[in-house]
Amino acid sequence: MQLRDIQGQPVAIHREDYAPPAYWIDTVDLTFDLDPAKTRVLNRMRIRRNADASNQPLRLHGDELNLARVLVDGQGASFRIEGDQLVLENLPDAFELEVFTTCQPAKNTKLMGLFVSQDTFFTQCEAEGFRRITYFLDRPDVMASYSVLMRASKDQYPVLLSNGNLVEEGDLADGRHFAKWVDPFKKPSYLFALVAGKLVAREQRVKGRSGRDHLLQVYVRAGDLDKTEHAMNSLIRSIVWDEARFGLSLDLDRFMIVATSDFNMGAMENKGLNIFNTKYVLANQATATDADYANIESVVGHEYFHNWTGDRVTCRDWFQLSLKEGLTVFRDQEFSQDLCAEASARAVKRIEDVRVLRSVQFPEDAGPMAHPVRPDSYIEISNFYTVTIYEKGAEVVRMMQTLVGREGFAAGMKLYFERHDGQAVTCDDFAQAIADANPHSDLTRLLPQFKRWYSQAGTPRLKARGTYDAAERVYTLHFDQSCPPTPGQSNKDPFVIPVNVGLIGASGRELLATQTLVVTQAGETFDFAGVDEEPVPSILRGFSAPVVLEFDYSDEQLLTLLAHDTDPFNRWEAAQRLGLRAAMAAIDAAPGAGAPVLSNDFIEAMRRVLTDTSLDAAFKELVLTLPSETYIAEQLETVDPQRVHAVREAMRARLATALHAEWQQAFEDNRDTGAYSPDPRSAGRRALAGMALVSLCLAARESGDTVWPGKTLQRFKDAGNMTDRFNALHALVSSGHALAAQALASFHAMFKDEALVIDKWFALQAGAPDRGGDVLPLVRQLMKHPDFSIKNPNRARSVIFSYCSANPGAFHRPDAAGYVFWSDRVIELDAINPQVAARLARGLDRWSKLVEPYRGAAREAIARIAARPDLSKDTLEVVTRALQ
Ligand code: PHE
Ligand code: ZN
């Protein structure tokens, strides 16, 4: 495989070009002499020619390795280096290959391969990091048995971990020691891991359903042991859930989680040795918010669930990435929902997931990086760890479950493992197993068409209209579907769209309980008989398909749904539609026309929600949250980001002042949640209390009142947990109150040794509402703060991404200074960590929708990056696509 062509341009890899490997690697015995400056790696492999493949040389991948020696069956062998590859010819059918290399972990700022973080060694091999450790067939369809011998200074690296079981350990001369690990399962190289350093572990022994004993460990730095209980509990819940829901048990004696503060992503599912970003492990009530607790639970679940969906059955090639990621996100979403005691909490989780999908994945699907859930080509695979592969991929799995039912889906999973355990397979194999286990289902009948969800990019539009025949008592729903063009795909064929529908009467009575309609044609009609009155249709309940639903609801109909829909998702959606409608009207109105940004009807509806004692606090908080600026922007043909920002801020201010009394009541009702527990009910109450404080401080800003800011500062000081403390701080900062400075300073002093809390401190300031262009200078200041380091991904995200990617009102400046800052940071990061740089480079994906002067300035900033020589292929791919 050639990475660059003759001109030095990166070359795209195509799914259609897949060919099985020319050789198999059966066993890998690795010996590491760990040293931060220069680690020696001896790699002994048993290799055999693939009888099914044509006779080719063996081409092993490598990246930034120093090669010292190559032996074939113990003899010096002739080899050549071609680009990044080690090439051997004239090999026997089966042989032992020994490769001796060195690498420099301390200099590894890309955090791929073997790297050092806070004096501890970690690895990250997905997708193509193993080649930075040794020469290998670094592709997921080459599965081998690994044994690992690690040697290191005992004093500096007392804990030595790798995949599988510890089979031997002991002391060596010169203060060194060793450990030998053997993984009982074959695995692709991307699941290899090792860790060496000064770590401590929380341990727990548990028994699986069949009586098997497991040792669970969560490894952290010594000072963090008091923040591991929640991760351990989450792991135990994950084990129990996967047995109960899918009959999948833990297949290892030992399961380890290790936390590192330097990590490009959230976490990694290495077999038996998951490596996590500290953000998704460490929590106690003083340092972590409810959102942190919920994220930890779902990420611990996600990585654990990969043990089956990813590790036992893996991907044939990286085009199949969603095979493991879409499925595993679906599983972690279901896990979090199943942990909810109440149906309303399940709905809240669903709404939160859909919000992410629509505000991040829909824009991706409409922009220059749009790609199918199973992409056809890529230049750099790291760029395809996207919300499309993950979140849209999860929606595709969810639709399968909707079409075959929950039990049918579990049966399909069972068949999938019966067929493919121990294999590297494709998305087709998965869909086939689900279908074959449900021979009489709509999925099976429609399988080839259903699979367009894997091959066609773009978000389908589903236009619906309804007619009521009072004489016949028949309600008719007509659907038209279409899908906008995406890069490389101008025409789309119709999708299979499961549409959950119910009907509500004008007085709020449910006339028809949920039914699943399966739309398969470009245009299609469904009749409902025996409908006694003209109904309000509740369409796409639970967001049963990842589409944009258009229905010409009147405001009155939306108010009916908001008040009465039995489907909580559509109840929330009705409020979102009303809010969006108000925003669009205000954006269209001549600036300064003086029309109120929110109608009285809308405000009264929000008042009813806020005071409705039958509704959960968490649900109220979601309903009262207006559609985000990015979501609003997506609905517009051309975007003036400052106008969108100003309108949304005006709407927020109006809700804050108009509902002042209700916000006070909501705060009083929810201010005290007793002894801290991160359960959904208490977390929802804290979220609503927090939102109330934000509103009350905002209203105080309008009126000049000082009482609520004062109360908020007091709450900040007295808070018994991080959620309440941070929410109070947020209220002061986001309302721009003078007391914010003092609270920020004391917050920093309180938590100066807690890196994850300091990340929050940075992020809050870089994400604060802009007042006269003050955020960019502040961001520049923050980058000079002694606690700032661009090399630490979490810290870079907390300052740079919070400003460039999460604060549109401050970032899109008429003077283009935000874009210039962005391009400077992309370039700076690219030399350090291309993966992080390429993610930041996605920040102006939607530039072509912007109005002038933003559009021209954004394009110029992207072009400025693209013009740099020596750009990584990660960043080059992103900016090249953005300019096309
Ligand atoms: N496979 C990881 C997950 O989703 C994500 C990841 C990808 C982590 C690449 C590191 C590198 O669980
Ligand atoms: Zn994953």
TrEMBL record:
**Stretches assigned to the Peptidase M1 membrane alanine aminopeptidase domain:** 231-446
Instruction: Please state every residue range assigned to the domain named Peptidase M1 alanyl aminopeptidase C-terminal.
Output: 555-884
Could you tell me the gene encoding this protein?
pepN
| CDD domains noted in UniProt | M1_APN
Q: Which family does it belong to?
A: Belongs to the peptidase M1 family.
Q: What is the scientific name of the source organism?
A: Variovorax dokdonensis
Top-level taxon of origin: Bacteria
Q: Name one Pfam family in it.
A: DUF3458_C
Mention one GO molecular function. alanyl aminopeptidase activity
As recorded in UniProt, its EC number(s) are 3.4.11.2
Reactions the enzyme catalyzes: Release of an N-terminal amino acid, Xaa-|-Yaa- from a peptide, amide or arylamide. Xaa is preferably Ala, but may be most amino acids including Pro (slow action). When a terminal hydrophobic residue is followed by a prolyl residue, the two may be released as an intact Xaa-Pro dipeptide
Domain Peptidase M1 alanyl aminopeptidase Ig-like fold, chain residue ranges per copy: 458-551
Q: What UniProt keywords are attached to this protein's entry?
A: Aminopeptidase, Hydrolase, Metal-binding, Metalloprotease, Protease, Zinc
For the protein in the UniProt heading, the enzyme class is hydrolase
Question: Where does the Aminopeptidase N-like N-terminal domain lie?
Answer: 38-191
> Which InterPro entries does this UniProt record tie to the protein?
Aminopeptidase_N-like_N (IPR045357), Aminopeptidase_N-like_N_sf (IPR042097), PepN_Ig-like_sf (IPR038438), Peptidase_M1 (IPR001930), Peptidase_M1_dom (IPR014782), Peptidase_M1_pepN (IPR012779), Peptidase_M1_pepN_C (IPR024601), Peptidase_M1_pepN_C_sf (IPR037144)
Name the chain's protein: Aminopeptidase N
Question: Which cofactor does the UniProt annotation name?
Answer: Zn(2+)
